[in-house]
Amino acid sequence: MKERILTGDRITGKLHLGHYVGSLKNRVELQTQYETYLILADVQALTTHFEKPELIKQNLRNVALDYLSAGIHPDHATIFIQSMIPEIAELTTYFSMFVTVNSLRHNPTIKAEATERGFQDMYYGFLGYPVSQAADITFCKATLIPVGEDQVPHIEQTRKIVRRFNQLYKPVLLEPKPLVGDVPRLVGLDGNNKMSKSLGNAIDLDSTQEEVSEKIKKATTDPARIHKTDVGHPEICPVYAYHQAFRKEGSDEIYESCKKGQIGCMECKRKISQSINDLLEPMRERRRVYQNDPKKVDEILMSGTEKARLVAKETMQEIREAMSMNYF
């Protein structure tokens, strides 16, 4: 039996280039080597979108299209909907009995996102979503989790939960390990240290050629450069970070030319726009195919969810037995 991967996204909006380099690229590359499960985390999306649940239905299909257009193939990966696997909710409840509030409050990802969203007092669901993520991972006994750098604390939380469960009851769960992409954290267009849909500084995976070019044109660059011949500081420039991520072979040349004032910001932006569009063009083609056949997308989601549900039932039988909760 192949080792299992579990990864996915809270479906709070379309995926962007930060998602791609952080974990989606790894998912595509590994889907034939591992038994891959991809979760559309609609319940966890409610942690920040509980007032607008109608958006989640739309986002669910948008993110599914992002997966398929990026190269996830339904023959190799199981895409499923979190809310349609009730065993995940049950397992979340069991885990929550022995996870302390302090450990959740000290989770750096939770703290950072709470600050970003201006939460003065955290909701129970938001504070506890790392516990829900632990259930996502363990219900299918996944051992490898492709994630962005900001999600690593959640994987460590899951590892602690698994160890605690196995110690308290029986050793039936497996400890996962994270797999971070080549670009752990992609800087935002505005120079913010993270590309984020909530910050509005991202390039979505479904962007047109024109949208990519326009967004790159407006991207923050080295503020010290006024003229093309000014000495540049590429190490602080978001556009150079994109060269490193999406145009690796030519990035050294860009670095030297910028440092010597031999290339202007507009030319630098033109080159990276072309490289990003070259990356996205095959995705656009695949997206058009799936967009023209929405019934096929729904079939993929229903089939994947049915398969995941069967796995969940098997795991929960073991969980209940380990906890002496198999009463009859």
From TrEMBL:
One of its GO terms (molecular function) is ATP binding. One of its GO terms (cellular component) is cytosol. GO terms for biological process: tryptophanyl-tRNA aminoacylation. The keyword Ribonucleoprotein does not apply. Keywords: Aminoacyl-tRNA synthetase, ATP-binding, Ligase, Nucleotide-binding, Protein biosynthesis. InterPro entries: aa-tRNA-synth_Ic, Rossmann-like_a/b/a_fold, Trp-tRNA-ligase, Trp-tRNA_synthetase. The keyword Transcription does not apply. Gene3D superfamilies: HUPs, Tyrosyl-Transfer RNA Synthetase. It catalyses: tRNA(Trp) + L-tryptophan + ATP = L-tryptophyl-tRNA(Trp) + AMP + diphosphate + H(+). CDD domains: TrpRS_core. Its EC number is 6.1.1.2. It is an enzyme of class 6 (ligase). PANTHER family: TRYPTOPHAN--TRNA LIGASE, MITOCHONDRIAL. Belongs to the class-I aminoacyl-tRNA synthetase family. This is Tryptophan--tRNA ligase. It comes from Brevibacillus brevis.
